[in-house]
Amino acid sequence: MAKSLSVLVASHSSTRLNNIEDVFFDAQGVALTRKLLSEKSVNPFTDSSTMPDVVILDLGPNGESDLAFFSAALSGLSSTALVVIGPSDKPELMRKAMQAGARDYFMSPISEDELIASVMQMGVAAQVASRQNLGTLTVVVNGKGGAGASSMVSSLSAIIANRSKNESVAVVDLDLQFGTLPLYFDLPSRDNLMQALQTSDALDPVALSNLMERHGSGVNILSSQPKEVRLPNSASATSVETMLSMLAMSHDHVIVDVPRNIDDVVTAAFEAADKVIIVTQQSVPHVRDARYLMSLVRSLGVASNRIKILVNRFEKKGDVSLRDISDTFEETDILKIPNDHKRMSFAVNNGIPVSIKWPRSTISKQLTSLANEVWPIES
């Protein structure tokens, strides 16, 4: 379920309140409330259980008093951004507004497009900083190359998106060099991920959603397909953090498929993650590499209780037993998905998540149980 920016508009004029409200009438992702101020500047926050992401203050005849009042009311609340609209014949109010903590200032008559863009950017920055109203962020990574992380991401995300009309799911292919995740959904690969990262300072949730491909299952996909050689550190950690937080603002679940290398981009995803799933298989090299990767992830400050091991293509009589794996990863949740090479191979090569092609198969039922365990449905 998309999480809207909460915006409070305050003014001494009901006419001006109506005009500002009309500006945001068609703005997607904005939940706007209004407050008509009295001459005594009654506190507009007394009847609100939660503070808004953005306050738009339309200054009245006593603009300095309004600024003093709102500066005091919002003092210490870094999660609420203040945007001020002032009269064009009193330019000195701009300096005083900035001293009062305003993030932006507009003189009447305002540019509607600029006001909307400013409010969206200020609201996004406030929510990102406070991490309020964010969906869960899960990073999935191969413990060893070819363990099946991408097939797990495609299968599990399709299940989550299908199980409830009230849940929204985004998947991100964070491999800037060899991204292939859209192929698992039979969708074209575009370089929209890099566009999002390069414009993260000016991006808002609506613009970001326009960069995503929507699969028939309901999964929204942000992909990368470089048209030229791209170095691993082609994006900054800050841009990755901003983009992922923005996705988590508009989706209940964000699942990130990261490449098996530790650079600034991947590190930023690990550090922002609520959960990390390391995919492995039943072989000594797979378990060895997964154990080493887990130690690296922990060294980045990711708590052990946020990490899970997923044994893909599990067989009861595998060369490495489940007991061996449990002993290797002590006090770590061990998840498993049974081996069904024929169905999974068909699903990958045809771009159809296995749970959609064979919803009643054993592997689809196990995937559904795993999805419900890791991402429980909120009551």
Tell me which oligomeric state these chains represent: single chain
Low-confidence stretches: none
Total count of strands = 13
Tell me the Rg in angstroms.
Answer: 24 Å
SSE order, as H and E? EHEEHEHEHEHEHHEEHEHEHEHEHHH
Strand order of the main beta sheet, please?
A: 8-9-7-10-6-11-12-13
Overview of this protein structure:
The chain has 379 residues and is of the alpha/beta class. Helix content is 39%, strand content 19%. The protein has 14 helices and 13 strands. The strands form 2 sheets. The chain has an 8-stranded mixed beta sheet, with helices on both faces. Strands 2-1-3-4-5 form a 5-stranded parallel beta sheet, with helices on both faces. α10 (284-299) links the parallel β11 (275-280) and β12 (307-314). α4 (112-130) crosses α8 and α5 crosses α14. The longest helix is centred in the first third of the chain and has 19 residues, at 112-130. It starts with a strand and ends in a 5-residue tail after the last helix. The mean pLDDT is 89.
Structure characteristics:
five-stranded parallel β-sheet
Show the helix and strand layout.
Elements: E1 5-11, H1 14-23, E2 30-36, E3 54-58, H2 63-73, E4 81-86, H3 92-99, E5 104-107, H4 112-130, E6 136-142, H5 149-163, E7 169-173, H6 192-198, H7 205-209, E8 213-214, E9 219-222, H8 237-250, E10 253-257, H9 264-272, E11 275-280, H10 284-299, E12 307-314, H11 322-328, E13 333-338, H12 341-350, H13 354-357, H14 362-374
Parallel strand pairs: 1-2, 1-3, 3-4, 4-5, 6-10, 6-11, 7-9, 7-10, 11-12, 12-13
Antiparallel strand pairs: 8-9
Helix pairs in contact: 4-8, 5-14, 8-9
